[in-house]
């Protein structure tokens, strides 16, 4: 059974940083691209970033480019999202997602999400 468990969310002031983690179970982690998506209050699901199977390719939404860094540790079956220079508009529930192939594309499983709140 595929399971994705996010952690690391919380309350942070504007300009601050957080690092999200997502540990994966139930599939061959290094055979799948992984992504982060988010959903802000009252809005739809927004793609944030994707990393390919070996970390050699990373992709970012324009809204987070230069502030967020996606990475993965295949030995630990773990995906990360380092978020710097956080803004109030980054407030959302963040979900990690398993890709359907090794590179950028669709996702077929999501975690339960972790809340990130950026507020003073």
Question: What's the rounded overall pLDDT mean?
Answer: 96
Termini separation (Å)? 40 Å
Give the H and E element order.
Answer: EEEEEEEEEEE
Helix content: under 10%
Gyration radius from CA atoms, angstroms: 13 Å
> Low-confidence spans: pLDDT under 50, at least 5 residues?
none
Structural class: mainly beta
Q: What global shape is seen?
A: globular
Supply the number of helical segments: 0
Strand percentage lies at: over 45%
Biggest sheet architecture: 7 strands, mixed
- The total strand number stands at 11
Description:
By secondary structure, the chain is mainly β. The chain is 0% helix and 51% strand. The strands form 2 sheets. Strands 2, 4, 5, 6, 9, 10 and 11 form a 7-stranded mixed sheet that branches. The protein is globular and about 40 Å long.
In a few lines, what is going on in this structure?
The chain is mostly beta strands.
List the helices and strands and how they pair.
Blueprint: E1 3-7, E2 10-12, E3 18-25, E4 34-39, E5 45-51, E6 58-60, E7 68-73, E8 78-83, E9 92-99, E10 107-110, E11 114-118
């Amino acid at each position: 059974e595929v399971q994705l468990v996010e952690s690391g969310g919380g309350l942070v002031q504007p300009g601050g940083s957080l690092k999200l983690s997502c540990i994966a179970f139930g599939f061959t982690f290094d055979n799948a691209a992984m992504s982060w998506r988010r959903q802000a209050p009252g809005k739809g699901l927004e793609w944030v970033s994707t990393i390919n199977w070996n970390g050699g390719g990373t992709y970012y939404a324009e809204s987070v480019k230069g502030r967020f860094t996606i990475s993965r540790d295949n030995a630990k079956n773990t995906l990360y999202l380092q978020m710097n220079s956080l803004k109030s508009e980054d407030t959302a529930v963040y979900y990690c997602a398993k890709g359907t192939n090794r590179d950028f594309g669709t996702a077929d499983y999501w975690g339960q999400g972790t809340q990130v709140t950026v507020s003073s």
